[in-house]
Amino acid sequence: MSDNNSLLANKVAIITGASRGIGRAIALELGRMGAYVIANYNSSYEAAQEVLEELKTTNAAGAEIIKADVGKSDEAQNLVNEVLNKHQRVDILINNAGIQKAVLVHKMTDADWHDVINTNLSSVFYMCRAVLPSMIAAKKGHIVNIGSASGFMGHKGAASYVSSKHALTGLTRVLAMETGDKGIQVNTVAPGVTETDMIASLTDVARERLLAGIAMKRVASPQEVADMVIFVLTKATYSTGNTFHISGGLIMQ
User: Fold this and answer.
1) Which residues are part of the catalytic machinery?
2) What is the pTM of this model?
3) Section 224-247 average pLDDT
4) b/e for 230-247, b at 16 or more Cβ within 10 A?
């Protein structure tokens, strides 16, 4: 995708949950495309520092890491304020932060529910609310929300995760409707099963069961998801409110 480099050069981009997995891959790809990358993390400074060191070896216009629990309103706002104070703008927001807790509904605690909803859904609302005034003033901006094939399916033991991803699709559409005439694009990229920490602990039997439902019979790499994000940012110039699936045919089931 080297022909797209000039389109993202010097763009100021925030990626939430960028210390590992899909977020890390997106941050590094944006760096390769010449963006100024702000990699957000919450719990693992060491992992975030590794991402920062890798970003320094790319074509990134610059890079930094900022700790914040974006599932909390004040921390999300403070993160955006810090970036705006330093750079005066946010060109790209990638809402990637996400967690999953496998608990059946009748055994799920309030904490189980709210932890996932706050991280996967409320964080998107908080971050978008924080960046939109500056994007509206600039009459440009691009927001990509990382959804999931689970936002179009149902899974036992994943009520909070599935609910958060279903709701994220609706939030994306509303944001697109509210900002489409203001030069801002809002889209969702929805991965299927991806080789991240979320599936690292699966048994061979569980992994085979997952693969049985995927038409391409393999999981995605984080890099493949990052490539789709770059496509949305650079090629999907007349798209807003849409979902770009990258699930290997999983949602056909």
Assistant:
1) 161
2) 0.93
3) 96
4) bebbbebeeebbbbbbbb
